[in-house]
């Protein structure tokens, strides 16, 4: 397949070289908030629509030679199917191109990115669609049953929501280098921070996704400074303080945060006065409670309702 690609190296999610394309897209649809209401997210540099716009603007001949544009998920499904697999609603929601309410490509977004884009993307489908049977190649070479059905592939975060069997009201939090929060939501309110995607399990509902860059590395930094690098000491210090931390609260952004866009350490005492530091055990609880408070606040902004 090596000679089939019009672009030999595709950008990955960490790419941030499309700021100018993001500005053009947001302006074309009436601003970042309107784009969020339309597609579930404001313009993000890593999103497919803006990456396509960059390729078109810098290499129009390459774009012209391109017959089909796939996501990683739909391309992987294509390999099993033996023909072009469609993009699913859920992964397609992370492109700045899909109208999440109508589940169709947004003409205004497509036109802002590149001409003839709809034909290159194909028609999106529900994430649980059966696309067909497996390619004879796999049956003959690996012994797959010819009746083996191929279901639409989706992205890693939608697949996590489906695999963990989340239901409405549930929240899943991944505590990694970056913290990720995703949840099943019935009536979303797209905002400038976070993402609203079509639900991979139920196409009539949605999932919200939030990413926080200052995750485990921030917790490890405070652990090293306040607990001698020991998680046991960290846990003991956390347990020695009361929930609510006697009104002391902190927000810790060692690197530029995604949600919200901020950097620096911000500590406040019970009188709502900003202070320069806390005792070690207070610092540890301020970090943990501040991180989880932020997750709840931003989830509520996207329409999540906390059940009492």
From TrEMBL:
CDD domains: ASKHA_NBD_FGGY_SpXK-like. Keywords: ATP-binding, Carbohydrate metabolism, Kinase, Nucleotide-binding, Transferase, Xylose metabolism. The keyword ATP-binding applies. Its EC number is 2.7.1.17. It is an enzyme of class 2 (transferase). GO terms for biological process: D-xylose metabolic process; xylulose metabolic process. Pfam families: FGGY_N. Phosphorylates D-xylulose to produce D-xylulose 5-phosphate, a molecule that may play an important role in the regulation of glucose metabolism and lipogenesis. Belongs to the FGGY kinase family. This is Xylulose kinase. It comes from Scytalopus superciliaris.
